[in-house]
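Sequence in, structure out. First:
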Amino acid sequence: MKKEKKGKILKFLEKKINNTSLSNNQKKNFIFTADIIINLIVIVALVLFIRTFLISPFQVFGVSMCNTFNYHNERCIDSFGDYIIINKSAYLELPGYTVGKPERGDVIVFHPPQNPNQFYIKRIIGLPEETIKLIDGDVYLINEEHPTGIKLEEPYLSNENRGKTFALDEISEFDIPSGKYLVLGDNRTKSSDSRSCFKDSFGAPGCDNAEITPYLSINNIEGKAAIVLWPNPRIIYSHDYQEIK
């Protein structure tokens, strides 16, 4: 289809250029240049479409998802590290159709509600209309299936982080509104996440500010982490919480 379209455009240009007083060499050079420009436009449009709706590269910064990301030579990298691919179509919403919804255990890239120019990577822990409680360093889930609560087993946490999910900003219970999600970093002792309303520096507004929210909407989410390209290539699987089913 693209070749046919390109051919029609070139034929139209060739017809127009043949009616000019240019020399044959000038006409050939013009058509050759036009062909290159048309191809570049098609390639740029295709790349923009892919990066906007399908996949996009992302480089993980900092230690908030260690040891899942940025863990090399038995240490956490507090800088730019793993280069990953985001699946931007994972939660794509089309008129009358939704590709998929965020699930507990998905690792996502998003921008915090109060800062649309910044990007974080965390793991979805709480789903809409659930309650998450932090008790003695562990995460407990309350929902329709578990009205009395159940402890969330998290084998992806390192030994240094297991049992260390403590409250930040003095909030230990989160009642997640409809259509919202709660996220935590895997490096619980060094992660700015829903517990602190994504406060990224000392003095920045946190959960004590009534206008700041600890929850994400689908519009905040850029996509689902899918593949690590470098330095240790692998597929990124969502964790399946078998113990709460």
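Second:
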Amino acid sequence: MSVFKKWFGKKDKSDEEIKEEVEQLQHGLEKTKQGIFSRISKAIAGKSTVDIEFLDELEEILITSDVSLSTTIKIIDRLEARVSVDKYINANQLNNILYNEISNLLEENNTKDIDSYTVPEGKKPYVIMVVGVNGVGKTTTIGKLAYQYKKQGYNVILGASDTFRAAAVDQLTIWSERVGVPIVKQSMGSDPAAVAFDAVQSAVAKDVDVVIIDTAGRLHNKIGLMDELSKIKRVMSKVIPDAPHEVLLVLDATTGQNALEQAKHFSAATQVTALAITKLDGTAKGGVVLSIADEFKIPVKYIGLGEQMEQLQVFNRRAFVETLFN
């Protein structure tokens, strides 16, 4: 537990709270751990050198776990470079090399550890625009975010700018009631930008700390959707010049390589500043987290580890890799 406390305990959390987060992370990543790193451990076992056979097996393990080809090659190249310098001797040392190189890969690509759910100084109200295709867990992530910010003592308001589906507004309303935060909404078919404008304007008037704006989740290759996101940003900036402060792209880990395609399209259409990777508890292909961080240079900020309100964690790369390797 002490190795995790240095990562989870930065905000003076109790031992019980740290234990709960660690257990949640371990349970949520169990399928990925078995799918990737248990297989790597078996491939390492008994090896005294890094030979072609091992590298081929490692490549297969990573690719079949939805680590992209380019990221897989990068990991293997780094492994070979380290082995030539460090004079690899045993399986434990090789395991440590892989651990360090994957951690470094996440750090180099802007995935920085943050302590908790906080509002940056001078950014009140803090405006988060959430984007992503239908079915990735976008609305659920918004509900969990609202819960976590409220838990930290912040006032939160939701904006239901996905006005193309009645179910989307209804679902967000249910979450607002569960969490106990107000919601700004209009009838189905209303102008999404108008809803976002009203939500931000209301937040300013009521001295709210955090505004979370839902957006439509139609297919990412629809030009109209991307134009709409740009309009929502422009309208909110009329109330708060630098809003939104964060554009959070929600991706479903279970979709594997398709998540990479979604990241590519949304990054091209709007300035995505952070990522939330959902449903990691439901897949053995959590290697997609490595690829997304590596290829798009966008920080992974949150990971979803279950359906409950508490099961959204601030992403900590060291704890993530530690859980997978040990």
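Remark: Residues 12-108 form a domain with the Four Helix Bundle (Hemerythrin (Met), subunit A) fold (CATH 1.20.120.140).
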